[in-house]
Amino acid sequence: MSTFMGMAWIDLCPDVAADAGLAAFDAVVERVRRSPYLDLFDAGAGSHELADGRCRIQSFAERDYAELATAVVSFAAETGMVFRAFVALDHDEFGAEHVVLDAAAGEVRRAYHYFAFPRDEETGEYYTEGGPGVLAEVPVIEKPTVVIDPGVLADGPVARATVAARYGVPVSAMHAAAAADASAHLECGAVGGPSSHWQETLGLAWDAE
Question: Looking at the whole model, is its pTM more than 0.90?
Fold first, then answer.
C-alpha cells in the first residue's frame, strides 16, 4: 500500500477568524492547483478551535501531495495569518520529512526540519537521493552545528526552545522528539508513522471535521 501523502496542522494568529483563515487557505490551494502540471493537486481542509481560542486548520493531500508544503508556506508568507505550523510529507519508499514552521514574528522560518532518509538494513548507510523539496528553501532559525545524521536540516538549542515556546511544551520534550527521529525511517510505510512522535509531543491530533 502506497503512503504518498501530505498532512498539515496550521495554527492561526489569535485575531484571525476561522472562516477567514480557511477561506484564505483554500484560495492559496486553488492557486497552486492551477499551476502548470498540478491540476491533480487537491488539499482537503477543515478547522476547529483550540483550547486557547485560536483556530487550527488541518489539511491532507494525496495527489501531488508535496505541493501541500508549497500551499502552507505561501499561505503563511502572504497572509500573515499563521502563528505556527507543522507539515509532514510521506514519500513512501523514498523516505519522509516533517517540519515545524514558525511565523509568529511575521517571517516564515523553519524551526525544526528532519528528513527520514531510507537506510541500508545491513550497513545503516543513508540513501539520500531525492531529499527535501520546497521546504528546504524556507529560511531556518538555526542550522545544526554538528551533523551526523544528514536528515537533520534545521535544528539547534534556540530552534528547539522556539518550538517549545510556540506550542507550550517543555524543551525536554523537544529533545526527546528529536532523538526519536533517529528511528523515524523504520516507520516509513505506516500512515503518519515517521512523524507520529512529533504529533504526540505537539498535541497534533487529527480533529478536523
Answer: yes
